[in-house]
């Protein structure tokens, strides 16, 4: 069967809570050994999807297989071969870091010693605090402990639900470096994040919103596939610039993007004419330059294209 | 004691110690009217402790300064009454309606009932939320809650608003709408003081400071900081500065 060639195969997976479609007929595949990112805001249905794939809840419709095993029939086999790090810190706060690790090893009928080599690069960073209660560790240390616990039974696959939320940029960087090392050891990783800047660290990403996948591609593929004229514009009076630009001919939309605004043009947008028109409106200091789309530009465009968004 | 006449924040050598631990270590800076000021730092750098002093929730161990025109050493209560505050973690009461939240906050800030009604109407009209006036906040989408929370923080018309990690977890369109609202408030003369872990949000700020181990290690516009550190992004600047941190992690 071809499904065993893929680490994850999802076909028409659907979950409702009352009338609300948390996950809406989702289909995608994840290759062995890749870091696959599920990128989307809170409430997109990321956690519900993770719960179904890790056999913690059942779908209303559709099927999925993990490492060739069916999520409805092969629950035990799946649970023993995947590691799951939930979005909310869910270790035992009143056990020490070491006790948590030992507990999770025991649950999976193994020992910390047996698999220590796999977690060592991560766990060693918090080892000097291993007698501290998990509830008293800092955010970055909790995250490292949770990852160690998810790995201690040497899973072939990792499910990480928003592992970097609320963590500072330095710890986030370190975390992604750890994921890269795990990938090099052949572990397949499905990771979700609301932060678009982490998309470029994945091999492939699914842009996800309101229970639906807006698109799947490599980060580079998404950037190359962006087909509208895109510019960065800036001037001293940024807020006014936004509103004036939106009324200009050839402008499809204009939105904030940090120190600049992004201007999405139609096919007949002419930057020279736009600059002249703006100068006539008193924006003599206007700077406009063509730019490449980032993942957020792609996400916005795909949200506009999907009638159900 | 005023260091800067029209500044909304002006502090010198602000320090907070807990026992022999110096959480905030002699920080000094000014924030002017209509500025969007980013207050960055790693976990454990002392941001929260500094914010609490700036918001009048705790007094410094040493140092001087003013926030919104009031003395940071003596007038915590006045400071609280004259600033706005919004955080993603806690913003509005989910089991009250949109208007009930506004009435509650209006009351806390001492507005008369008629003032609350008028201002609430104006805000809801501007946000195109009039139909949601009697909707429970808990049933609104996250993006709406954030916009509403920001508006509620402006109800008593503060000259400075503290945004404590304001926009986590919303889709890019909603996030941009939120920052557009912030930009509008700044263009209208309101000062915004923003903490965030997300360096793309730092790019929205006119100036940013980066705290490491209780001290401000850098303070300038994102463009100048990037140039100074030869970095392509604020994320890179932040990592260069924070990597040497001894606290946190």
Question: Summary?
Answer:
Chain A has 309 residues and is an alpha/beta fold. Helices cover 32% and strands 28% of the residues of chain A.
Of all protein chain pairs, which has the greatest interface, and how many residues does each chain bring to it? Answer: A-B, 38 and 38 residues
Q: Output the CATH class name of chain B.
A: Alpha Beta
| CATH top level assignment of the largest domain in chain A | Alpha Beta
**Largest sheet entry of chain A:** 6 strands, mixed
The oligomeric state of the chains shown is heterodimer
Overall, the morphology of chain A is: elongated
Strand content of chain A: 25-35%
By CATH, the topology of the largest domain in chain A is Rossmann fold
- Main β-sheet, spatial strand arrangement of chain A: 6-7-8-3-9-10
What is the end-to-end distance of chain A? 35 Å
The low-pLDDT segments of chain B are: none
**Element-level helix/strand string of chain A:** EEEHEEHEHHHEHEEEHEHEEHEH
Query: Radius of gyration of chain A, Cα only, in angstroms?
Result: 23 Å
Strand elements of chain A, count: 14
- The chain-level structural class of chain A is alpha/beta
CATH homologous superfamily assignment of the largest domain in chain A:
P-loop containing nucleotide triphosphate hydrolases
Q: What is the secondary structure topology, with strand pairs?
A:
The complex is a heterodimer of chains A (309) and B (249).
Chain A: E1 6-17, E2 20-31, E3 35-39, H1 46-53, E4 61-66, E5 69-70, H2 75-81, E6 82-85, H3 97-107, H4 116-123, H5 139-151, E7 157-161, H6 169-184, E8 188-193, E9 204-209, E10 212-217, H7 219-225, E11 230-234, H8 238-246, E12 251-257, E13 260-265, H9 271-280, E14 287-290, H10 295-305
Chain B: E1 9-18, E2 21-31, E3 36-41, H1 47-54, E4 62-67, E5 70-71, H2 76-82, E6 83-87, H3 98-108, H4 113-127, H5 142-153, E7 160-164, H6 172-187, E8 191-195, H7 199-202, E9 207-212, E10 215-220, H8 222-228, H9 234-242
Parallel strand pairs in B: 3-8, 3-9, 6-7, 7-8
Antiparallel strand pairs in B: 1-2, 1-4, 4-5, 9-10
Helix pairs in contact in B: 3-4, 5-6
